[in-house]
Amino acid sequence: MAAPPTGTVTFLFTDVEGSTRQAREDPVAWSAAQARHHEIVRTAIEGHGGFVFRTVGDAFLAAFSKVDGAVAAAAAAQRALRAEPWPGVAVRARMGLHSGSAEWQDGDYHGYITLAHAQRIVSAGHGGQILLTQTAADLALTDLAPDLGLRDLGAHRLKDLPRTEHIFQLFAPDLPTDFPALRSLDAFPNNLPFELTSFIGREHELAELKALLSASRLVTLTGPGGTGKTRLALRLAATELETFTDGAWLIELAPLGDPTLLTQTVAGALGLQEEQGRTMLDVLLEYLRTRNTLLILDNCEHLIESCAQLAEGMLRAAPELKVLATSREALGIAGETAYRVPSLPQPERLDAENLGSVAANDCVRLFVDRASAADQRFQLTERNADAISQTCLRLDGIPLAIELAAARIKVFSPEQIADRLDDRFRLLTGGSRTALERHQTLLALIDWSHDLLSEDERIVLRRLSVFAGGFALDAAQAVCAEPPGGEVLDTLARLADKSLVTVDESREATEARYRLLETIRQYARDKLLASGESELIRGRHLEHYIRFAEEAEPHLRTADQLVWLERLEIEHDNLRAALAWSLESADAARALRLAGAAAYFWELRGRYWGEGHRWLDEALALSSRSEGSGVVEAQPARAKALYAVGRLLFAAQGEPPGSREIVEASLRSWRELGDRWWIAVALEHVGFMLMWEGDLQTARARLEEGVTVARQVEDQWPLALCLMRLSGALGPSDIAGARRAREEGVAIARKVGDKSVLSQGLEGLAYLYALEGNLAAAGPLAAEALSEARAIGAVTQIFLSLLILAMIDSMRGDRAAARGRCLELFALARQSGSTLVQLVGILATGVVACSGPDPAVGVRLLTALGRFGAEHGVTTGGVGGMFSVLVDPAMEDARGRLDPAAFEAALEEGRTLTLEQAVELATAD
Fold it and tell me: SS3 sequence, 272-333?
């Protein structure tokens, strides 16, 4: 068998005419005939140096390095098929040849344009016919066998190809020469325009629409401007043209402003004239009555009622008529199937380093195709792939917007285009001069849709621009209705019908959510600014999300925790937008309220530690400036924010002393206010930080006070928390007392429902059992602790559970499992950006390594850890002695396994390691 040719390749594609019908009518006879057909065609191809790279049903796809081999193979196959006695079936294969550029890579051919040409040329033929494109014919003429010739069949329009194709037929004395007209677009009556640019993607949408059009007589393509509704409708019409014996006809309605001229416009596209004594509607309906026709009503939105009435009348009068409409909204008549055209699938930015993955994305393919047309020197590279991906993402995958952006490649680099998208309406101009005026700039396109709105729709649309990342109905009512909290559902539904608001179906939620495409949102935001009500509406948005966050906060400490974490996650972009406005408008009181209410969510979701700390820090700074200016803000809100910023400072950066000092300031405020719940909570954190610093005596005093105060409040959440921490301060000197406190805390945590606190109690119990050598009890507890923490993404409890599990695995002698836990810790550190998690990863790896084949690695890591801990206020005696309990035996084990010189050398090297070097050493193979 020949090797796959590359470079300039001649492709021979074949398939059998009528095979589906024959297989259905006589499957047994067809199965035998198909097997014989395959044998004949493959023998002809491979006997003339061809390479069969794919078979699909009865179709062969073969490649040749030279055109004469492909021509000879096609002639030989047709002769053999013609000579074969076919009992009960007729095997008539059509064949097409095209030459062009293609490369064999990863087990397939790459060269979309060449392959598409070959596919379309065979589709135009009939059984027994061999067709060649102009390119293949030109190459074949020089080496054509004496008994073969070429017949010029003229220029034809083929589906998917932007230009007409000159087609030739191969003939020989012993092969049929007379065939029906080619199955090109010209063979069927139509006024479909030439495709001047390549059609990219939409294979899935075309397949869905084809099925809908076969089942429904009216299919309306809906969606916002620029999503390619017209282009998709035209491609669908061209694909299905041969099923409409009386043709497919495009009626362009965009230029039409007078609805009374609609009937005249449709009739004119069909070539109909007025007749004396009859209305034009009568003439049109009479013409369509007996015809099998497809009408494409393009851009119906500004004539929606008239289009609906006319479409309904035509469909009633003409049983074989089908209508394909494009509009921002459905026509809304009986029998209509509405199909929302989605944006193109957007690239994953994380895949930008993988050029092949980026290049295969339809958005990127479109950008590259149009940019290459604007500047032939342009190409996708590893350097510009991320910028192009960003552009496609920020333009919501809207084809027109991407095309306009790509056209700017003549004056801007891809990176400059991406950077300028905040001013996209000025950037995205300069479309084709022959396009509709509104398609020449993105602003004009959206202006067209906006001008068709009623006044109440315009008001709600511009107010919706304050939302970020989507919104629910109650939020829209609170922010956009007049008065706030009023009804906006009908207006929202109309905006959704007009494709300006998108119903978000990406999440399995109990309530509908809506969003604006980013391009629409920026447009509406500009309208909001121009209206003079921006401050009012952003203030309503801020107030709504303060109420939402304050409602959510107590639920985060209950059995409803998972539900409310998800709700907060969904609304996180809106929380950010509200916080940004509170700071921008210098509203210190509301900034503190919102940041304080969101703090526990940020703490539980470890990936937001740094972000949450920054929001709280900025709110507190604004509060300090406002207080200095004589503005009085709520003392509880400030005390709450101080507590939260102190906790997140420790989570994100370590530094127990700094964290403790901030929370102690919060504690003083809570004592002044006499709030026992918050006193207990603040005492818990102060005690915990003292444990990290190694001051167990003071830590125990603070935590015992916390337990006493917590027993005086109805909500038992603070009591569970304080008992957990007290247990840590008691052990390992009082393991029995520590276990009693921990077990009481676990029982309360199970009842309360906070998985983070429960996980904390379980991993602490596991640690205590491990200290006693009871690994059978310790292992399941630590595993349950990890499971509970992972259920809510509580990073603090995940890394502590992983640490305990690594120690248990090491004590069991399962070094591979222990090593896996350590690597998970470093992955978690990268994900959360936490220095503290890095330190715990070094601790776990060092302890495990001390008992491994290279104990010097463990010594270096644990020595370095001592220095790093000191820099962050953590002593080796910290956390209730946990570090020393783990580190000291590990170091002694390593000392006994190394000679003195090697041990001292490892100590010396550990003292010089940077944090980055220690992480690299700990994660090395």
Answer: CCCCCCCCHHHHHHHHHCCCCCEEEEECCHHHHHHHHHHHHHHHHHCCCCEEEEEECCCCCC
pTM, two decimals, is 0.69
Bridge partners (DSSP) listed for residue 166: 155
Residue 246, number of CB atoms within 10 A of its CB: 18
In angstroms, the CA 78 to CA 74 distance is: 6
Q: Locate tokens 């292992």: which residue?
A: 779
Q: How large a percentage of the chain has pLDDT more than 90? A: 56
* pLDDT tens per residue, range 775-828: 999 999 999 999 999 999 888 889 889 999 999 998 898 989 999 999 999 998
**DSSP for 183-203, written as a single string:** SSGGGS-B-PPP--S---S-H
The residue with tokens 């009374």 is 260
Token pair listed for 491: 């207006």
Sign of CA dihedral 781, 783, 786, 788: negative
Question: What SS3 state is found at 899?
Answer: coil
- The candidate with the shortest Cα–Cα distance to 132, out of 121, 148, 144, 141, is 121
835-866 pLDDT, tens digit each = 878 888 999 999 999 988 999 999 999 999 88
Give yes or no for a contact between 639 and 854, defined as CB atoms under 8 angstroms apart: no
Report in angstroms the alpha-carbon separations of 260 from 305, 310, 539, 835. 11, 11, 46, 71
State how far the Cα of 752 lies from the Cα of 784, in Å rounded to an integer. 17
**Tokens at 681, concatenated:** 């909570």
The CA distances from residue 455 to 7, 400, 460, 495, in Å, are: 60, 27, 9, 12
* Residue range 26-68, pLDDT digits in tens: 888 889 999 999 999 999 999 999 999 999 888 999 999 999 9
pLDDT at 629: 47
Q: How many CB atoms lie within 10 A of CB 633?
A: 21
> Within 13 Å, how many C-alpha atoms sit on residue 581's CB side?
22
- Angle among Cα 171, 172, 175 to the nearest 5 degrees reads 90
Instruction: Please write the tens of the pLDDT for every residue from 446-474.
Output: 887 788 889 999 999 999 999 988 899 99
CB 113 within 8 A of CB 96: no
